[in-house]
């Protein structure tokens, strides 16, 4: 199986360093979310992996090989970089036929991926008549054409309607379950949380995190428990007896910070507190990400002062 | 990666964008139309070269050849199309060779057909004036014309790869060919004979009277084209896509 290996990768455009000594691996069989604000270096990294831009130093390889040395690149790697890349006066189907021709992929496969991406009959229309969502689907169809083992999508949910977003989530899951290596960039946290197993987080070209999604969140956001009760006084005293503080919210529910639902549930039922609602308030990727970037900003600010 | 499928992909690219085949049609139409007009024109100077008169439609027709070469390449420089092309064919030299072949072959075939048609319609108009043309001269004119148009299309293709824009290429080449060669042309002396268009068009003369002969003239144009293609190749290899 093929992994993407990025090793001490640096890319400078003039004085600006877009990618700064980046090292990480993307492994097969899971969806890796590639996170970071716009301009963090995600697209640049993908272009470097595809050999489109030359690294200033370091390397990016696929299963140990340079992209440019792959004998049939579309059968190894499927990439969606820019949904606008298809020529407006060509039909969607012809756009795919051109790519297929370079690898002797039969037209039958072109029709298959058109069906698979939900374009079907729209394939006979010119690309200029497509909505952004349809162009995105065409870009994904192009990436799937060679049935590649490595998938790289740059912001694939851009312009997709809600149906499309559910579709792409299912597609990414399936591709990873088939044992493929899947790298998907996004700047949308909740979106990424919905499909990624693993995260690679960039900030200003540098690696901020390379960890499973769950660990990333748990390490940065303390879990809390959410409770509603008909007898707040008993609740507060029962919690206080065990050293927990409860905070009341305007709509009447309480939260216990830094606590697990397993512990609090046992505790309040033991004390006979009438419970209307009890839920684990787990951190979101967004909270974890903001916590991470806040630390980073502080770090950068300190560095500048020094 | 083998060359044949890459060439097929590049040819399919040209065929499936309507303005490109249309430009080749325009090359045929403009050249034969202007040659036909030159053939029947009363103002024809009795001392003018009858072969050149018959093929004079090349002057406007070559603009179509330049546009074809420029547009076939410039389509790659819109919205990251080149990235998609080079992701499919990462060996840039191979890709460039396929692109140029996909431009050259149809231009050559259209050029030969066009030159033959232009010669036939113009001869019908010129009548006795063209009677003195030998078969060898006419064959040389037609073959030379096809080659000349192909070299011009490739010249534009190379320059567009360097400049990454058809507009930039055509705004350099068209005034250069229309204005510089024609207006400054005769005043500038012998240097102008080595301009890419002037040199190559010697092959269209029944009796060349300058320094360059028909084939040496075409060779000079080929050198210009080679320089443009090399500049394009250098740019393609060196720059980020």
UniProtKB/TrEMBL annotation, chain A:
Keywords: ATP-binding, Nucleotide-binding, Transport. Residues 4-229 form the ABC transporter domain. The keyword Lipoprotein does not apply. The keyword Flavoprotein does not apply. GO terms for molecular function: ATP binding; ATP hydrolysis activity. It holds the Pfam family ABC_tran. Coiled coil: none annotated. InterPro entries: AAA+_ATPase (IPR003593), ABC_transporter-like_ATP-bd (IPR003439), ABC_transporter-like_CS (IPR017871), P-loop_NTPase (IPR027417). Belongs to the ABC transporter superfamily. PANTHER family: ABC TRANSPORTER, ATP-BINDING PROTEIN. This is Multidrug ABC transporter ATP-binding protein. The lineage of its organism: Bacteria, Bacillati, Actinomycetota, Actinomycetes, Kitasatosporales.
From TrEMBL, chain B:
The chain crosses the membrane at residues 51-73, 94-121, 141-163, 170-192, 212-236. Keywords: Membrane, Signal, Transmembrane, Transmembrane helix. Residues 1-38 form the signal peptide. It comes from the Bacteria. This is ABC transporter.
């Amino acid at each position: 199986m093929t992994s993407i290996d990025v090793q001490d990768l640096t890319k400078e455009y003039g004085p600006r360093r877009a990618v700064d000594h980046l090292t990480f691996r993307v492994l097969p069989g899971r969806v890796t979310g590639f996170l970071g604000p716009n301009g963090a270096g995600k697209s640049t990294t993908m272009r470097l992996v595809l050999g489109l831009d030359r690294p200033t130093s370091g390397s990016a390889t696929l299963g140990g090989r340079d992209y440019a040395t792959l004998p049939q690149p579309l059968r190894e790697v499927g990439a969606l970089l820019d949904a606008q890349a298809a020529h407006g006066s060509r039909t969607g189907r012809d756009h795919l036929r051109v790519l297929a021709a370079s690898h002797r992929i039969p037209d039958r496969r072109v029709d298959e991926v058109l069906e698979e991406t939900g374009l079907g009959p729209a394939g006979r229309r010119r690309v200029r008549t497509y909505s952004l969502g349809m162009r995105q689907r065409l870009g994904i169809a192009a990436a799937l054409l060679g049935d590649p083992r490595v998938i790289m999508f740059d912001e694939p949910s851009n312009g997709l309607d809600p149906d499309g977003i559910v579709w792409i989530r299912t597609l990414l899951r399936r591709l990873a379950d088939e044992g493929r290596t899947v790298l998907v960039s996004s700047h949308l946290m909740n979106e990424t949380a919905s499909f990624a197993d693993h995260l690679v987080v960039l900030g200003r070209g540098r690696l901020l995190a390379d960890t499973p999604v769950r660990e990333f969140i748990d390490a940065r956001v303390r879990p809390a428990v959410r409770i509603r009760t008909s007898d707040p006084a008993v609740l507060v005293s029962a919690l206080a007896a065990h050293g927990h503080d409860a905070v009341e919210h305007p709509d009447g529910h309480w939260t216990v910070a830094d606590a697990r639902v397993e512990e609090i549930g046992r505790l309040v039922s033991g004390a006979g507190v009438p419970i209307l609602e009890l839920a684990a308030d787990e951190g979101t990727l967004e909270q974890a990400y903001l916590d991470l970037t806040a630390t980073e900003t502080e770090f950068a600010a300190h560095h500048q002062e020094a | 990666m083998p060359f044949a499928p890459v060439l097929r992909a590049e040819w399919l690219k040209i065929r499936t964008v309507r303005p490109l085949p249309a430009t080749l049609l325009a090359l045929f139409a403009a050249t034969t139309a202007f040659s036909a007009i030159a053939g029947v024109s009363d103002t024809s100077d009795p001392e003018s070269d009858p072969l050149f008169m018959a093929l004079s439609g090349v002057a406007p027709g070559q603009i179509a050849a330049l546009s074809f070469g420029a547009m076939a390449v410039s389509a790659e420089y819109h919205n990251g199309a080149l990235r998609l092309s080079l992701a499919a064919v990462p060996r840039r030299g191979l890709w460039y060779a396929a692109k140029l072949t996909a431009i050259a072959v149809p231009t050559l075939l259209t050029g030969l057909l066009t030159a033959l048609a232009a010669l036939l319609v113009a001869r019908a108009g010129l009548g006795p004036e063209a009677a003195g043309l030998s078969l060898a001269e006419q064959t040389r004119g037609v073959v030379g014309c096809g080659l000349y148009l192909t070299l011009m299309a490739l010249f534009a293709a190379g320059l567009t790869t360097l400049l990454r824009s058809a507009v930039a290429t055509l705004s350099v080449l068209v005034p250069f060919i229309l204005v510089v060669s024609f207006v400054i042309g005769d005043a500038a002396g012998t240097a102008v004979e080595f301009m890419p268009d002037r040199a190559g068009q010697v092959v269209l003369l029944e009796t060349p009277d300058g320094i360059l002969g028909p084939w040496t003239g075409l060779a000079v144009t080929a050198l210009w084209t080679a320089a443009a293609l090399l500049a394009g190749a250098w740019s393609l290899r060196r720059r980020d896509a």
